[in-house]
Amino acid sequence: MKVLILLFLAAAPGYRQALPGYHYQFPRDHFEHPDFRTEWWYYTGNVHAADGHRYGFELVFFRQGERTGDAASNPSRWRIDDLYLAHLALTDIEAGRFRYFKRLNRAGPGLAGASFTQARVWNANWEAKWDPATAGQTLTAVAEGVRFTLRLTPRTAPVIHGENGVSQKAAGPGKASYYVSFPRLDVAGTLNGVAVEGTAWMDHEWFTHQLEPNQQGWDWFSAQLATGAELMLFQLRQTGGALDPFSAGTYVAPDGRVTHLKRTDFDLAPLAWWTSPRTHARYPIKWRITVPSLHLTLECAAAIPAQELVAEDASSPSYWEGAVTYTGTSTGVGYLEMTGYDKPMKL
């Protein structure tokens, strides 16, 4: 689950729904699905320099379908069939500094897009370039005070989340997404001129259904553990504080076996909070995670407290997303995203 900053309160007609029984085809399904209204490619990672200096990074590409009629009636290259939003963030853990950047484009004459034929997803000079034969990916991004080129090599095959090919988010047909991850990619490259290495997580989701009116936000966890296992959990929070029964997760064992986790299979308990000085939202930045069936107990702690991406206008939500560390049954690194704490999400 990820946050889309633009708000669209109702699904547009003419888009497909995510239904069980989808036949995934890779590498084709790593790229654009214009028949679905919303899609995102989400990269998060933890890297370090040779001297031990640690960083977290986030590079995200969103596509939001805005088709309003027959393309033949408006052949202009500037016609808006899709809007492309991108987020870039860097956490300098040792310096305790968090920086983030956003950009919005239409496709136009190559300004932004996602293309199987070009094997890339991009927004201006931020790009994820793929090698379809190996699923290797190269991320490049330039912004004020941030410049990186990172080569990502998957350790595992792509993981499909959910059951029957869909990640269900609410009751009813189509109230779901197609959700695929590379849960552990080796990272090597340069960040602001310094050689770095580490691990990354890549999420790709496409869907048309929007959040239900009673779903206020979510908490999403990724963990890359020293045992060689990976864990993804998300809990949907309802208005009033109740946890949604469609919260779920995925455990990938060191040997690659994948286990789907239902809401009743895990528990997430907040332990400490940070209050944003800008939005006054109160975010849990330390959590206890228990998965009894896996004999797994973890404590998730923010690498630094202030990793909030603040909205630029009142109509958009702010959210917290940043690097975290894990201790407990195993140690590890990952990312945490929390939405709906300043106001309900309306995705």
UniProtKB/TrEMBL annotation:
Keywords: Signal
Domain AttH: 38-206
Top-rank taxon, per record: Bacteria
Signal peptide: 1-18
Pfam families registered for this protein in UniProt: CrtC (PF07143), Lipocalin_9 (PF17186)
Protein name as catalogued: AttH domain-containing protein
Source species of the chain: Solibacter usitatus (strain Ellin6076)
Lineage of the organism: Bacteria, Pseudomonadati, Acidobacteriota, Terriglobia, Bryobacterales
